[in-house]
Design brief:
Blueprint lengths: L1 H28 L2 H8 L3 H10 L4 H10 L6 H4 L10
Helix pairs in contact: 1-2, 1-3, 2-3
Length: 86
C-alpha cells in the first residue's frame, strides 16, 4: 500500500509541476485566449489542460517556442508522460 501512496504522491507532484509550467506559458502568451489562438485550439481546451495538469506531448514544442524557451518541453511534460492524473 505504501508503494501505491508513493506513486500517487509522485503523480500529483508531476501534475502540479505541469500546471505551473503551463501557467507560465499562459502568462508569457498574454492569457489563455491568446495562447489558444497561437496553438489553434479553443480557450476551453487550454483551460482544461490547466485544470487537469495535462499537456499533450504534441503541443509542448510550440509552447516552448511561444515562451522563448523560458519553459522547456520537459517542464511541460516531464518524462513525456502522456496520461492524465486526477
Amino acid at each position: 500500500m505504501k508503494d501505491f501512496k508513493d506513486k500517487l504522491k509522485r503523480l500529483r507532484e508531476l501534475r502540479e509541476s505541469k500546471r505551473k509550467a503551463l501557467q507560465k506559458v499562459i502568462d508569457i502568451a498574454g492569457g489563455q485566449i491568446a495562447l489558444a489562438k497561437m496553438l489553434g485550439v479553443k480557450e476551453l481546451t487550454v483551460k482544461r489542460w490547466l485544470g487537469d495538469g495535462y499537456v499533450p506531448v504534441s503541443r509542448t514544442l510550440k509552447m516552448s517556442k511561444i515562451s522563448n524557451n523560458q519553459v522547456t518541453r520537459d517542464q511541460l511534460n516531464p518524462g513525456n508522460l502522456s496520461f492524465r492524473v486526477k
